[in-house]
Design a protein that fits this description.
alpha/beta; flat; six-stranded antiparallel β-sheet; 29 strands; seven-stranded mixed β-sheet
């Protein structure tokens, strides 16, 4: 609002203020600023200092500089409140705003950010609320709204208005007599407006329509003139008042900040360095950074913190209900503190029976009350081994009553959970780094956090491609940053604290203390009652799980034993005594009960007498590990062969888990343990009835030999589960049936050093024997069952087999290789097209004799040898197996001479692998493919990896040069500037999601001769010592000629993708080319980076100004451009056939 009056009549409607019509509009988003009462634009957005006016919405040093990709509008509405002004309510203005915005949208779905000042915010809130109504013609406006910044909007009225009236407040601010109609409308509809604000808040916070919102409020008082308002004005207002207080200007659940300004100055900013402007500018940037960040980049960030097995333990099925956890005590009162009895309640009343005398008085802090309470933000669930802590935590995270109770604590809560798992196959499942990755991933996946905010404070995050790129320190910083600024309250459930690796325990507890300092975070912890955690966590509200599950355990015991009483197998009195004994000895540990009941049922089936059954139960140890030992002893009473079979099953279950395979299936186990099923049988049609019989036999053996220590978990067969041949369909139930340990403690028991030698030692299989058995089982099931996409990767099988070389007979290795080759050639593995020859992949794993023998007996040894050499060289662009992999150069060196003897051609161009033009469903996804010679691929990788292993790389390069390759081949090299530094050598085939918006890109077209000279210069600068087997390459004098290297394209990455331009005048890019040559020659100085960045910015400016020297390419993508010019790429059809040179 403005106290000044001008005589001119402002434009009503939308008015573009930036960019001016004289400039090219390269914007990708719209910003619309809405003023408040009795003012207009640009007056309300103008800071006046004498005769100088600063319009921050259009001043090129202010908002346009902060968001150069934005088109900025002001929305002028009839906001006059003086006598004889047009009368229109807030609600009428909302419809007009929607109509104008919809009419102005040039592109459906174009992002819009609104800035709303004072009562203009109420107009906008009403507009958004109306647009959200089903069938409303303006829903597209809602879908396009990506964020809102409110400046001192009185959503819930003002304290000043309550003391006087809206009429008085407006009069006081304006210093004039207002027309009563609009003000009366505000007073009359005050409750309705508040209700609509609440509705708007729900819409903005609903997952489907979620809108990032920043609310700014004034912190300086406005003085109201007594001569205007009259003598009755309260003295408090004379001294000055905050017209729109924080609790009125802020909507719960959204970001908010205070500005050191009076109400009238909340929308006026004088300079970029102004702290208040910085706050508002940052909020706008945070919102728009998320918009301009492509979805691919967001997905890339999420993928970088996700790891294999992140949700493995969380997603395992669980059984059990805990209705008593939500039992509310009528006696609850006062503070739910750790050191008081308030909030504590007794066990559920139904367990107060005589035989449980004393147990009903065990106290616990009421969990539901804690969920609802604001007094303590940490709760501790403790329990014995196998008492069901993890099952309870899973129950709590999934039960709707948890969310309902949390909603009493705060609106729109979010639940995040992580389960530490000592027995997990990945270290991240049991360390703090994995916990941080899990929490951050869940928080960001909900899309409520602005990734733009993270980019401003953690600029390095888009450089991460894998969890291995992150340090725990970086993850801690980001985790606290995300949660501290999270727009919703969060309840974090952490289970298995005792299973975290010992060295991370203290760090975890320190980190949890930082969680406690965040007001909108609750943390529920679960662990065993170990002294370390007892000391750290007993001060919080807590419960001991084994104290609260007696009724559930009694029900389970009764349900299992009662049928044998009913059928007369045992008497009622003995059955009752057995059930009581089971309940007492279990002492709240469900797992003990399950195992004990299984052992008793075995006795019942063996026709043990009642006395023998009861004696059997009394002899059972109460300690869980001793019970495992006791069950094993009972198993081995029957036959020595039981020991051998059971030990093999246990060892295979452990090995399968340790090798990070998918869940062990019964079909796997049957194939792995049946010696009559050989690896060579894969080449023929397999005997389905025999396999079905073996699965049935294996299932019975597990039940007999492993009584309860390995369990079979059937799962339904879905319509999507298919076999390669209809005769194998009866095997699907066995393929779906999971074989697993009943609890993580069972895994711990069998991996204990003493147990390994004493129990597992009954089977003589080595770890290599087990790996071979499981690999055989994998290949057999692959022949039988069509795997869900993505199908297994042949590289994984070859990697496993490569670790058995030298410990398994060569004959066995060759048999497996032949089986792998059969499955690969017959499409049992992945169906990506085009795919390399099997022998090429096998060569990358050093199966030298097998590969060379296969090449020699092939129809065209020279052609196949060249394909293998090209494939080996292409691995230099593979992050997991290229120059960054220690084995790449060793493998290439191992095959170099033998392949040359077989007439491999280092200069023969062909398809570069790994690459796909079809996806896992066989659909065509790309028609352009990398197409280089072995030396071209090798040199491209050397540029990409820079100075890594420069000695070894250069020696291999000299070997290439002695073969006299064709150095006239031209390849593209891509360089880009991400604002943090220059990167060069990036493959042009990489998706542009690798880059951030507004990055500059250069595509170089150069020949191999130049690259050889450039790398030789790098080697010279590194002061490497050359061996006697070759002198360093010396480039010829014509290396700097225009034909050796040129700039093919320059480009800019925007939110809509990359745009590339050819330059018609070489002089325009000459300086940039010279700098690129220095960069390729190894100059990585900061000074060179600044010079390159300057040239890139200059070229970008020429492009946006419409310089005739730059012409945008017509091709739809860079790959199409390169393929059409046969520069390192070719067009390819669905059969994987490339066009010829």
């Amino acid at each position: 609002m403005d106290t000044q009056r001008t005589a001119y009549q402002p434009h009503v409607g939308l008015q573009k203020v930036f960019p001016p019509d004289s400039e090219i509009d390269k914007s990708t988003v719209d910003i619309i600023a809405i003023h408040g009462l009795d003012t207009d634009s640009p007056r309300t957005w103008t800071y006046t200092n004498g005769h100088r006016e600063i319009k921050w919405l259009e001043d090129k040093c202010l908002l346009p500089a902060a968001v150069p990709y934005a088109r900025i509008y002001t929305y002028n509405w009839d906001a006059k409140v003086f006598n004889n002004a047009p009368v229109e309510t807030i609600f009428g203005h909302a419809d007009r705003l929607l109509d104008l915005v919809k009419a102005r949208q040039s592109t459906p779905g174009r992002p819009i950010l609104f800035i709303a000042s004072c009562l203009g915010g109420l107009v906008l809130a009403e507009a958004i609320t109306r647009a959200a109504q089903e069938g409303n013609p303006y829903r597209q406006v809602l879908r396009s709204t990506v964020g809102i910044v409110f400046l001192a909007t009185p959503f819930f009225g003002t304290d000043a208005a309550r003391k006087g009236s809206w009429f008085v407040v407006v009069k006081g601010i304006m210093g004039k007599d207002p027309s009563g109609e609009l003000i009366k409308d505000l007073e009359k509809n005050h409750d309705k407006i508040c209700s609509r604000v609440q509705e708007f808040s729900l819409i903005a916070n609903t997952p489907v329509t979620r809108i990032p919102i920043w609310c700014f409020y004034e912190t300086k008082k406005t003085k109201i003139m007594k001569r205007i308002l009259g003598a009755w004005l309260p003295d408090r207002l004379l001294r000055g008042s905050i017209l729109v207080e924080r609790n009125s200007a802020c909507i719960p659940g959204f970001q908010h900040r205070g500005l050191g300004r009076t109400h009238v100055m909340m929308n006026k900013f004088e300079k970029d360095e102004c702290p208040d402007y910085t706050n508002v500018r940052s909020a706008i940037q945070l919102i728009l950074n998320d918009v301009t960040m492509p979805k691919e980049q967001r997905d890339r960030l999420l993928a970088s913190i996700k790891f294999t097995g992140m949700n493995e333990w969380k997603n395992r099925p669980h059984e059990g209900t805990f209705p008593w956890i939500f039992h509310t005590s009528d006696s609850r009162s006062g503070d739910d503190g750790a050191n008081s009895n308030s909030g504590a309640c007794q066990n559920p009343p139904e367990i107060s029976k005589a035989k449980f005398s004393g147990l009903e008085y065990r106290q616990w802090h009421n969990f539901e009350y804690w969920l609802r309470s604001e007094h303590n933000n940490t709760y501790w669930i403790s329990g014995k081994l196998g008492s069901g802590k993890t099952t309870l935590v899973k129950y709590l995270t999934e039960h709707p009553a948890t969310m309902k109770a949390l909603s009493h604590w705060a609106e729109n809560p979010v639940i995040i959970s992580h389960f530490f798992w000592k027995a997990g196959t990945v270290k991240l499942q049991r360390d703090i780094k994995g916990c941080l990755c899990s929490i951050i991933y869940q928080a960001l996946e909900l899309a409520k956090v602005s990734l733009g905010a993270l980019l401003l404070t953690h600029k390095y995050i888009l450089r991460k491609t894998s969890h291995t790129d992150w340090s725990p320190k970086e993850l801690r910083s980001i985790c606290l940053d995300v949660l501290a600024h999270y727009p919703s309250p969060v309840c974090i459930f952490l289970d298995g604290l005792d299973e975290i690796c010992i060295e991370d325990r203290s760090e975890l507890l320190e980190f949890l203390e930082k969680f406690r300092a965040i007001p909108h975070i609750k943390t529920c912890l679960a662990s065993r009652s170990e002294p370390y955690f007892e000391s750290a966590c007993s001060k919080y509200p807590n419960l001991r799980l084994q104290d609260l599950t007696f009724m559930d355990i009694e029900k389970y015991a009764s349900k299992t034993i009662q049928p044998y009483i009913s059928n007369g197998r045992i008497s009622s009195s003995v059955g009752s005594r057995i059930m009581d004994e089971l309940t007492y000895k279990a002492d709240g540990v469900f797992l003990w009960l399950r195992l004990a009941v299984s052992d008793l049922v075995r006795g019942l089936q063996n026709v043990d007498s009642e006395m023998e059954l009861y004696a059997r139960l009394q002899q059972m140890p109460s300690d869980l590990y001793k019970l495992y030992e006791d069950i094993w002893t009972r198993i081995n009473e029957d036959s020595p062969i039981y020991r051998e079979d059971a030990a093999l099953y246990f060892k295979l279950a452990i090995s399968s888990k340790n090798e990070m395979r998918r869940d062990l299936k019964l079909l796997h186990l049957a194939a792995a343990t049946t010696d009559l099923i050989g690896i060579t049988s894969i080449h023929d049609t397999m005997n389905a009835p025999f396999l079905e019989q073996q699965c049935s036999t294996t299932m019975k053996k597990i039940q007999q030999r492993c009584i309860g220590l390995l369990e079979l978990v059937p799962r339904p067969v879905y319509s999507s589960d298919k076999t390669w041949d209809a005769q194998y369909a009866p095997l699907l139930p066995y393929w779906r049936m999971r074989v697993q340990f009943p609890h993580r403690t069972a895994y711990d028991f069998f991996t204990n050093g003493d147990t390994v030698s004493r129990i597992l030692g009954f089977d003589s299989s080595t770890s290599h024997d087990l790996s071979l058995r499981l690999l055989k089982a994998d290949l057999i099931t692959l022949k039988l069952v069509q795997r869900p996409t993505p199908s297994p990767c042949v590289q994984n099988a070859l990697d496993t087999l490569s670790q058995l070389v030298g410990v398994m007979p060569p004959r066995v290795i060759d048999e497996v290789l032949e089986a792998l080759r059969y499955l690969y050639d017959n499409e049992y593995f992945d169906t990506l097209r085009p795919k390399p020859h099997f022998l090429a992949i096998a060569a990358s794993f050093s199966f030298k004799e097998f590969v060379l023998s296969g090449v020699e007996t092939s129809p065209d040894p020279a052609l196949l040898a060249t394909d293998i050499l090209r494939y080996l060289c292409s691995r230099n662009m593979n992050h997991s197996g290229g120059f960054g992999s220690p084995g790449f150069l060793a493998v290439l060196g191992e095959f170099w001479e033998p392949l040359l003897k077989l007439e491999a051609n280092p200069s023969s161009k062909g398809i570069i692998h790994p690459y796909m033009i079809t996806n896992i469903f066989g659909d065509l996804v790309d028609s352009e493919i990398a197409f280089l010679s072995p030396i071209g691929s090798f040199l491209r990788g050397m540029v990409y990896w820079g100075s890594q292993k420069i000695n070894e790389n250069y020696k291999q390069l000299l070997k290439f040069l002695r073969a006299e390759p064709d150095l006239q081949e031209r390849i593209p090299i891509l360089a880009h500037d991400d604002g943090c530094g220059l990167s060069i050598g990036v493959s042009v085939g990489e998706p542009m999601s690798h880059y951030r918006s507004n990055e500059s890109v250069v595509v170089l077209d150069l020949d191999l001769k130049f690259l050889v000279g450039a790398y030789s210069e790098r080697a010279r600068k590194s002061a490497m010592t050359f061996s006697t087997d070759g002198a360093p390459y010396r480039p010829s004098e014509d290396l700097w000629s225009e034909t050796s290297i040129r700039i093919a394209l320059t480009g800019v990455v925007t939110s809509n993708g990359a745009k590339y331009y050819e330059c018609s005048e070489k002089a325009a890019t000459k300086q940039l080319l010279n700098l690129m040559i220095e960069l390729l020659y190894g100059d990585g100085s900061e000074d060179l980076t600044k010079k390159v960045r300057y040239e890139l910015n200059k070229i970008e400016g020429d492009i946006w100004r419409g310089s005739s020297e730059y012409v945008q390419i017509k091709e739809k993508s860079l790959n199409v451009y390169l393929a059409s010019r046969k520069l390192g790429r070719r067009f390819v059809n669905e059969a994987g056939v490339c066009d010829s040179d």
